[in-house]
Amino acid sequence: MIKVNLLKNAAVRTHRTPVRPSSSQTGVLLVVFFVLVAASMGAWYYVVNDQKNGMTEYRNELKAEEARLQALKAKLEKYEEDKKHVQSRIRLIEQLKEQQTGPVLLLNHVLHSIPKNRLLWLTSLIQKDNTVKIVGLTQKIEAIPDFMTNLAETGFFQSVDLEEISTQNEASKFSLLCMSAQYQPEE
User: Angle of helix 143-153 relative to helix 103-113, nearest 10 degrees?
Assistant: First the structure.
Protein backbone atom coordinates (compact mmCIF):
# COMPACT_ATOMS: atom_id res chain seq x y z
CA MET A 1 0.00 0.00 0.00
CA ILE A 2 1.14 3.40 -0.89
CA LYS A 3 0.62 6.21 1.39
CA VAL A 4 0.11 9.70 0.08
CA ASN A 5 0.42 12.58 2.43
CA LEU A 6 -2.33 14.95 1.62
CA LEU A 7 -1.43 17.30 4.39
CA LYS A 8 1.43 19.57 3.83
CA ASN A 9 4.27 19.08 5.94
CA ALA A 10 5.45 22.05 7.78
CA ALA A 11 8.96 21.07 7.07
CA VAL A 12 8.64 21.36 3.39
CA ARG A 13 8.09 24.84 2.35
CA THR A 14 8.14 26.11 -1.05
CA HIS A 15 8.94 29.64 -1.77
CA ARG A 16 6.62 31.38 -4.04
CA THR A 17 7.00 35.01 -4.89
CA PRO A 18 3.79 36.93 -4.50
CA VAL A 19 2.35 38.27 -7.68
CA ARG A 20 2.09 42.00 -7.61
CA PRO A 21 -0.20 43.75 -9.99
CA SER A 22 1.75 46.03 -12.12
CA SER A 23 0.40 49.53 -12.35
CA SER A 24 0.16 50.90 -15.77
CA GLN A 25 -0.04 54.56 -16.67
CA THR A 26 -3.37 54.16 -18.45
CA GLY A 27 -4.94 52.74 -15.32
CA VAL A 28 -3.70 55.66 -13.24
CA LEU A 29 -4.85 58.09 -15.90
CA LEU A 30 -8.29 56.50 -15.96
CA VAL A 31 -8.61 56.75 -12.18
CA VAL A 32 -7.49 60.40 -12.23
CA PHE A 33 -9.90 61.10 -15.09
CA PHE A 34 -12.83 59.55 -13.19
CA VAL A 35 -11.93 61.47 -10.03
CA LEU A 36 -11.78 64.73 -12.03
CA VAL A 37 -15.10 63.98 -13.73
CA ALA A 38 -16.72 63.19 -10.37
CA ALA A 39 -15.31 66.38 -8.81
CA SER A 40 -16.46 68.54 -11.75
CA MET A 41 -19.91 66.94 -11.66
CA GLY A 42 -20.11 67.66 -7.91
CA ALA A 43 -19.05 71.27 -8.47
CA TRP A 44 -21.52 71.59 -11.35
CA TYR A 45 -24.28 70.15 -9.10
CA TYR A 46 -23.59 72.75 -6.41
CA VAL A 47 -23.53 75.60 -8.97
CA VAL A 48 -26.77 74.43 -10.56
CA ASN A 49 -28.37 73.90 -7.15
CA ASP A 50 -27.34 77.42 -6.11
CA GLN A 51 -28.78 78.83 -9.34
CA LYS A 52 -31.98 76.85 -8.77
CA ASN A 53 -32.29 78.28 -5.24
CA GLY A 54 -31.64 81.79 -6.56
CA MET A 55 -34.25 81.36 -9.29
CA THR A 56 -36.75 79.97 -6.77
CA GLU A 57 -36.28 83.05 -4.58
CA TYR A 58 -36.62 85.29 -7.64
CA ARG A 59 -39.81 83.45 -8.67
CA ASN A 60 -41.24 83.92 -5.16
CA GLU A 61 -40.40 87.63 -5.31
CA LEU A 62 -42.09 87.88 -8.71
CA LYS A 63 -45.18 86.08 -7.39
CA ALA A 64 -45.37 88.51 -4.47
CA GLU A 65 -44.97 91.43 -6.88
CA GLU A 66 -47.67 89.94 -9.12
CA ALA A 67 -50.04 89.65 -6.15
CA ARG A 68 -49.34 93.28 -5.19
CA LEU A 69 -49.92 94.42 -8.77
CA GLN A 70 -53.13 92.39 -9.02
CA ALA A 71 -54.39 94.15 -5.90
CA LEU A 72 -53.45 97.52 -7.42
CA LYS A 73 -55.14 96.54 -10.68
CA ALA A 74 -58.32 95.63 -8.80
CA LYS A 75 -58.22 98.99 -6.99
CA LEU A 76 -57.63 100.79 -10.28
CA GLU A 77 -60.54 98.98 -11.94
CA LYS A 78 -62.77 99.87 -8.97
CA TYR A 79 -61.61 103.47 -9.21
CA GLU A 80 -62.30 103.55 -12.96
CA GLU A 81 -65.76 102.07 -12.39
CA ASP A 82 -66.48 104.63 -9.67
CA LYS A 83 -65.16 107.39 -11.91
CA LYS A 84 -67.48 106.32 -14.76
CA HIS A 85 -70.38 106.15 -12.34
CA VAL A 86 -69.68 109.63 -10.98
CA GLN A 87 -69.20 111.04 -14.49
CA SER A 88 -72.52 109.57 -15.60
CA ARG A 89 -74.19 111.17 -12.59
CA ILE A 90 -72.55 114.49 -13.36
CA ARG A 91 -73.74 114.28 -16.98
CA LEU A 92 -77.25 113.46 -15.78
CA ILE A 93 -77.23 116.41 -13.38
CA GLU A 94 -75.97 118.72 -16.13
CA GLN A 95 -78.69 117.47 -18.49
CA LEU A 96 -81.32 118.08 -15.83
CA LYS A 97 -79.95 121.57 -15.22
CA GLU A 98 -80.15 122.34 -18.94
CA GLN A 99 -83.70 121.02 -19.11
CA GLN A 100 -84.92 122.98 -16.08
CA THR A 101 -87.91 125.16 -16.80
CA GLY A 102 -90.76 126.80 -14.99
CA PRO A 103 -91.10 125.81 -11.33
CA VAL A 104 -87.57 124.42 -11.05
CA LEU A 105 -86.01 127.68 -12.22
CA LEU A 106 -88.36 129.63 -9.98
CA LEU A 107 -87.36 127.62 -6.90
CA ASN A 108 -83.65 127.88 -7.77
CA HIS A 109 -83.86 131.69 -8.04
CA VAL A 110 -85.85 131.97 -4.81
CA LEU A 111 -83.51 129.67 -2.87
CA HIS A 112 -80.39 131.47 -4.07
CA SER A 113 -81.96 134.80 -3.07
CA ILE A 114 -82.41 133.92 0.59
CA PRO A 115 -79.86 136.04 2.51
CA LYS A 116 -77.00 134.21 4.16
CA ASN A 117 -76.58 134.52 7.95
CA ARG A 118 -80.17 135.76 8.31
CA LEU A 119 -82.95 133.86 9.94
CA LEU A 120 -85.57 133.65 7.18
CA TRP A 121 -88.01 130.80 6.48
CA LEU A 122 -90.39 130.44 3.57
CA THR A 123 -93.79 128.98 4.44
CA SER A 124 -95.46 129.09 1.05
CA LEU A 125 -94.76 129.85 -2.58
CA ILE A 126 -97.67 130.11 -5.02
CA GLN A 127 -97.36 130.74 -8.76
CA LYS A 128 -100.32 131.77 -10.91
CA ASP A 129 -99.50 132.75 -14.46
CA ASN A 130 -96.71 135.32 -14.14
CA THR A 131 -97.48 136.25 -10.52
CA VAL A 132 -95.59 134.61 -7.67
CA LYS A 133 -96.64 135.05 -4.03
CA ILE A 134 -93.99 134.26 -1.40
CA VAL A 135 -94.96 134.01 2.28
CA GLY A 136 -92.46 133.53 5.09
CA LEU A 137 -91.22 134.26 8.61
CA THR A 138 -88.10 135.99 9.94
CA GLN A 139 -86.64 136.82 13.32
CA LYS A 140 -84.75 139.80 11.92
CA ILE A 141 -86.87 142.26 9.97
CA GLU A 142 -83.73 143.51 8.12
CA ALA A 143 -83.67 140.21 6.23
CA ILE A 144 -86.84 141.09 4.25
CA PRO A 145 -85.37 144.02 2.22
CA ASP A 146 -82.19 141.96 1.55
CA PHE A 147 -84.37 139.10 0.31
CA MET A 148 -86.38 141.45 -1.93
CA THR A 149 -83.18 142.97 -3.38
CA ASN A 150 -81.71 139.56 -4.09
CA LEU A 151 -84.93 138.45 -5.83
CA ALA A 152 -84.89 141.57 -8.03
CA GLU A 153 -81.21 141.04 -8.91
CA THR A 154 -81.81 137.50 -10.23
CA GLY A 155 -83.40 138.90 -13.39
CA PHE A 156 -86.13 136.29 -13.13
CA PHE A 157 -88.61 138.79 -11.67
CA GLN A 158 -89.70 142.10 -13.23
CA SER A 159 -90.87 143.52 -9.91
CA VAL A 160 -90.77 142.48 -6.27
CA ASP A 161 -93.30 144.20 -3.95
CA LEU A 162 -93.94 143.85 -0.23
CA GLU A 163 -97.61 142.95 0.11
CA GLU A 164 -97.89 142.58 3.89
CA ILE A 165 -95.74 142.47 7.03
CA SER A 166 -96.89 141.70 10.56
CA THR A 167 -95.06 141.01 13.82
CA GLN A 168 -96.06 138.03 15.96
CA ASN A 169 -94.17 137.26 19.18
CA GLU A 170 -90.48 137.28 18.22
CA ALA A 171 -91.04 136.65 14.49
CA SER A 172 -92.27 138.78 11.65
CA LYS A 173 -94.54 137.31 8.97
CA PHE A 174 -94.19 138.76 5.50
CA SER A 175 -95.80 138.35 2.11
CA LEU A 176 -94.17 139.33 -1.19
CA LEU A 177 -95.81 139.67 -4.59
CA CYS A 178 -93.46 139.15 -7.52
CA MET A 179 -94.06 139.49 -11.26
CA SER A 180 -92.14 136.90 -13.25
CA ALA A 181 -90.31 138.15 -16.33
CA GLN A 182 -89.81 134.66 -17.73
CA TYR A 183 -93.29 133.16 -17.41
CA GLN A 184 -93.71 130.02 -19.48
CA PRO A 185 -97.15 128.46 -19.49
CA GLU A 186 -97.20 124.74 -18.70
CA GLU A 187 -97.87 122.52 -21.68
Answer: 140
